[in-house]
Amino acid sequence: MYDLKDKTIRGGFAKICSQATNFVLRTGSLMILARLLGPRDFGLVGTVTAVIGVLNLFKDMGLSTASVQRATVSEEQISTLFWINMLVGGVLGLLTALCAPALAAFYREPRLVWVTIVLASSFVFNAAGVQHSALLQRQMRFTTMAVIETLSFVASATVGISMAFTGYGYWALVGSAIVTPFVYTLCVWVAAAWIPGQPHRRAGVRSMMRFGGTLTMNSLVIYAATNLDKVLLGRFWGIDAVGIYGRAYQLVNIPTDNLNSAAGGVVFAALSRLQNDPRRLKSYFLKGYSLVMALTLPITMACALFAHDVITVLLGPKWSDAVPIFRLLAPTLLIFAITTPLAWLLGSIGLVGRILKISLVVSPLIIVGYFIGLPHGPIGVAVAYLTVMTLWIIPHIAWCVHGTVISFRDILLVVSRPLASSIIAGAIAFGVRLAYGQSMSSLPRLALESTVLLVVYAPMLLFVVGQKSLYLDIYRGLKTPSAPKGEELVSA
Could you tell me the pTM of the whole model? Predict the structure, then answer.
């Protein structure tokens, strides 16, 4: 671990740059597709992805994370895990195809049959790249992974937009969804330059499968809690309701997904290497946590305060019904930014059982909230979801950090600094909007609001609340030369 700190910083920087690029591309493609397609097209595909996404949770059985978390992994273990992933992917693809008629009958929409069958192929594509991706993570090759993620998204967006332009309707969304895992898997095979060998019955993968199985069960529980809302809205309020609610939900989650993707893999890999060094683990975690908070809070503030302008600019005026839902869901950006890194911490030190227990407690609360809000439509469901998540945040933090090197006070201190900066910056930006933005159209007004928010937020964060030293340290890490190429972080 000659230069773990520097590799982590450079890898994190590469992932952030990649995710920033992906954010622009993803938002741009969504803007284009939202104008070429209607809520019914998005709702049609959204109903399928919300349901088969349950099976998608089993695509790698948590074995990629298990491979990264282990201190050492042998060639026999990786090969055995690869074939287990392929078997699981094939079974899931077949099950999805067989469920297509039932899914179409449930929603009373016959077009869902072929949509479901085609989307089933993604399971095989995903499974084929799981262990290759894990190998790249173990080697801390995050710059390579960042390039691959960007290439796969560019290919996906190109296919989706091209199909929408040529009149394929909802099939453009299906094509886009299939291209992503296909291109990603192809690229990680080339980058890893590894060909799996034969599986071995006694390769010693049982403990890894238990670890991965616990993570998979946790993902299943969380997925059910965060996607049942769309299933219920589709069944009782129709495809259009899913389209409106789903676009607002997706738009809110784009920043979270990008930030978690940028920081998650890097932080988890680094913390896993430090699981036996509590002092350094605490330092690495809090620095990564601070960065996630600093990037998330101004986005959260902008989405909550300027929801109408964001929806109008990104989706267009025909999506105005999504504005109140988007505004209600915006605070969940901050909630997930607070809670998700705590799962990285627990997973890196092997406490995956605690992660599952926490999910088993909060998920029923979220689901009960959905049923309470369902009679009031998409807005009622959004209110219920936000309420439950807000009430849960304090118990969640306390449970996660109990018995670890991180204290509840550490978390509050990290969150409070960017939170105070974002509140002041948001108030000033909103004041500028009231004073000067009323006569502007949505695009220039959003540009003005966002610029003021960031211009005030950055100096507040760096100088007023004292985060300058953290970012100087990160900058110095970026300038440090790499370790010799012959040195490997991963023991085979």
Answer: 0.67
